[in-house]
Amino acid sequence: MTTIGNSVRPSVTTGPISGSEKIHRGELGVPARRVHLTNGEHFDLYDTSGPYTDGSATIDVQAGLPAPRRDWIAGREPLTQLAHARAGTVTEEMRYVAVREGVDPEFVRAEVARGRAVIPANRRHPESEPMIIGKKFLVKVNANIGNSAVTSSIEEEVEKLVWATRWGADTVMDLSTGKNIHETREWILRNSPVPIGTVPLYQALEKVNGDPTALSWEVYRDTVIEQCEQGVDYMTVHAGVLLRYVPLTAQRITGIVSRGGSIMAAWCLAHHQESFLYTHFAELCEILRSYDVTFSLGDGLRPGCIADANDAAQFAELRTLGELTKIAWEHDVQVMIEGPGHVPMHKIAENVRLEEELCGEAPFYTLGPLATDVAPAYDHITSAIGAAQIGWLGTAMLCYVTPKEHLGLPDRDDVKTGVITYKIAAHAADLAKGHPGAQAWDDTLSKARFEFRWEDQFNLSLDPDTARSFHDETLPAEPAKTAHFCSMCGPKFCSMRITADIRAYAEEKGLTSIEAVEAGLAEMSETFKAHDSKVYLPITEA
Ligand code: SF4
């Protein structure tokens, strides 16, 4: 265990999510969030929250998390998951994710072997609970955290990590750019149950005092090795930003909006050379292979506004990312491809089609995309619209956007809002893709809703606390938790209660459902007339 500095002692949120119990399945101890229902049944949900939501776990952030992968790693050849998969070996990580996803381990191996899925799992991050990113699996969500030169502390960032995974973040990217980058990352890695991603260029830039033109392959290489040693699981590398692509951005409204993209463009222009990320790519592959760090090939020329979507610069870079993907695969290094950004709905499908065609179906990992630019402060929503669509079309991981996007560094509340918003987009995509098991969750909640099992409805939801508090704002009394209505329509016009009454009526009278509906509606019509045909009635009559 790497020693963590004594200068900070973050306190983090612990304890089960309301109404849930942490369970561990099978010999590998795969975690799940078990919701016990009031009808005696239970429902298990995918769980990313690590030991923090385990009521029986002792949490010591100074010591870091237990390391479930340590013995697996020690007991086999130090190959990448891709190399193992190509050799026909089903690793423990593959078996673990198979349980999580409810699929066959051999299916996992085959998807990793053909490069259509990745298991980001640095051998030096044994604390992580394995997960898989690929179009044939559940759509994943990434949450970005990290301090900047302006605000935030290590304590806040560790809590944001725990908080983001509590609400369902499958991976977390540490995008710190301010002071204490190394120490912040150490705290995050040692306490993270999910894969951690970084953009090594940010730290390299700090090392040359923020001057992009002073960057060099040597500074960058040493930074990558430093981060590989610490245990970073995947790295964004903007190796597709080529000198000849930079002029293609000249006519854009928002130019180059990727931090990494603008840094590399500045370097290329200053040196009038192709970037060291591109010219040293094979060497970079060797480094990442020796730790099993996954490439996340960055979209440094992604569009920063609706008008710039799908332009020549964006797709030129994507073509280069396709070439780099093949080089990485030749070195047995796992690869994801990053995507935009800001794209109107009618241009989203082309992004997925081209990515799959040019990059051999390597998992697509997109930021949003925002489907419109006109709603600052609501960009978690503008982007979730695009995210749900691009997820449905085959994108494997969605990078969240918080309400603070374009406006400021997100705080803890923004992180939760961003994660929940993206879990909605991801799950909507899972449903549309027909992922086995996705609809069972909806059906279980729908049934609870129809049967007025309010506690079950709250506890099965993505955010039980908020669902419960919204209900209790107007009907806080305990009997309301079994009442056959809520304050939205009131007791007399609760359509679900009326439907349930119709069914009971049909059963009692031995009628077919159509006859019962007709008879029930006729009776309701009489009731309506008896109340002077008023549509809205005071709920105090309950
Ligand atoms: S009152 Fe309306 S919103 Fe509330 S449970 Fe009944 S149908 Fe649903």
Automatic annotation (TrEMBL):
Annotated GO CC locations: cytosol
One example of a Gene Ontology biological process annotation: thiamine diphosphate biosynthetic process
Cofactor-binding details, from the entry: Binds 1 [4Fe-4S] cluster per subunit. The cluster is coordinated with 3 cysteines and an exchangeable S-adenosyl-L-methionine.
Catalytic activity: 5-amino-1-(5-phospho-beta-D-ribosyl)imidazole + S-adenosyl-L-methionine = 4-amino-2-methyl-5-(phosphooxymethyl)pyrimidine + CO + 5'-deoxyadenosine + formate + L-methionine + 3 H(+)
Record carries keyword Plastid: no
Residue span(s) of domain ThiC-associated: 26-77
Positions annotated to bind substrate: 144, 173, 202, 238, 258-260, 299-302, 338, 365
Region (Disordered) residue spans: 1-26
Cofactor or coenzyme needed: [4Fe-4S] cluster
Comp. bias intervals (Polar residues): 1-17
Enzyme Commission code(s) on record: 4.1.99.17
Pathway(s) it belongs to: Cofactor biosynthesis; thiamine diphosphate biosynthesis
InterPro entries with a match to the protein in the record: ThiC, ThiC-associated_dom, ThiC/Bza_core_dom, ThiC/BzaA/B
Function: Catalyzes the synthesis of the hydroxymethylpyrimidine phosphate (HMP-P) moiety of thiamine from aminoimidazole ribotide (AIR) in a radical S-adenosyl-L-methionine (SAM)-dependent reaction.
NCBIfam families documented for this protein: PRK09284.1, PRK13352.1, thiC
Name of the protein this chain belongs to: Phosphomethylpyrimidine synthase
Protein's organism: Kribbella turkmenica
Higher taxonomy: Bacteria, Bacillati, Actinomycetota, Actinomycetes, Propionibacteriales
